[in-house]
Amino acid sequence: MTRSATETQALQKRIRQLAQEKDAVILAHNYQSSEVQDVADFTGDSLALSRLAADAPQHTIVFAGVHFMAETAKILSPQKRVLIPDATAGCSLADCITAEQLRDWKAAHPGAIVVSYVNTTAAVKAETDICCTSANAIDVVKSIPTQTEILFCPDRNLGAHVRRVTGRKNLVTWDGACHVHAAMTPDILLQGILAAGDADVYIHPECGGTQAAVDLIGAGKLSEERVKVLSTGGMLSEAKKAPKGSRVLVATEVGMLHPLRKANPEVTFEPLMPQAACPYMNQTTLENLVSCLENGRDEVFVDEDIAVRARASVQRMIAIGHTVSPQQH
């Protein structure tokens, strides 16, 4: 659907009015569309936003993101009302493993510690020993005794990155992936890097080509100063330090370009794959944000027993630290 700039601004104004009337805080993930990010109170990664929401004075949380993110907010704010503009907005990565599959995997590896990426359902978090984000996964794994086997799920690419950095050969990965990041294969990533000339490169560790890029850095064929593997929060930190007039090739979901450009307007940020837009993230629109606030839909609930166990796995991670603060608007 095509809207004029005037229509977009009118919708955004209505959303801000409704948020005030309904005592709601609006959170938008970094991969949301630019117009949704711009109307939110805060943008960031899912865990940082959920932690912020727990401390926010508002009694209603509206999470512009995908379903597992709203679940995480509910887990950390059980006393608050959590809404998501479209409850059918799922996640190809979170869908890669179920709680039943994780229980079977644990049974085959007695004594192992389960580390789950926050990009998982509440039911999977409930079967997890400790959660992690892409920003703190290395610190989480380093906190576990070296002799202990680690089951890392669901992202094989992030898991491989963590195993490489930590040297933990007893870290076993689940064979899952985000379909958007998995499409950034070694060939596509390396072709993009070579075509980018002297541009810096930011690579999210979920990308399918991360290992190939790191191997070339290790072989001295790519510059470690130029090519960096970073979480979304790490990308924002690097962007703020990038020199005026420089160029950066960004290998992640294209929604991330908007916060990067806002963080440093003097730098040119270009997507590795312009078509790398998550269809689930883009299910949130200004129109269904208005409907969400007007009608109180779709509300997110988490079974109390699952929430208690899932909360414990998230809180163990929080105790380790290293999370990135959301951006306030």
From TrEMBL:
An example GO biological process term is: 'de novo' NAD+ biosynthetic process from L-aspartate
> Which Gene3D superfamilies does this one have?
NadA-like
Supply the InterPro entries for this chain. Answer: NadA, NadA_sf
Supply the alphabetized keyword list: 4Fe-4S, Cytoplasm, Iron, Iron-sulfur, Metal-binding, Pyridine nucleotide biosynthesis, Transferase
EC nos: 2.5.1.72
In the record, which residues are listed under signal peptide? none
Q: In which pathway does it act?
A: Cofactor biosynthesis; NAD(+) biosynthesis; quinolinate from iminoaspartate: step 1/1
Q: Name the Pfam families for this protein.
A: NadA (PF02445)
Output the superkingdom of the source species. Answer: Bacteria
Q: Name one GO cellular component term.
A: cytosol
MF terms from GO for this chain are: 4 iron, 4 sulfur cluster binding; metal ion binding; quinolinate synthetase A activity
Known cofactor(s): [4Fe-4S] cluster
Protein name (Swiss-Prot/TrEMBL): Quinolinate synthase
Originating species? Mobiluncus curtisii (strain ATCC 43063 / DSM 2711 / V125)
Q: Which gene encodes it?
A: nadA
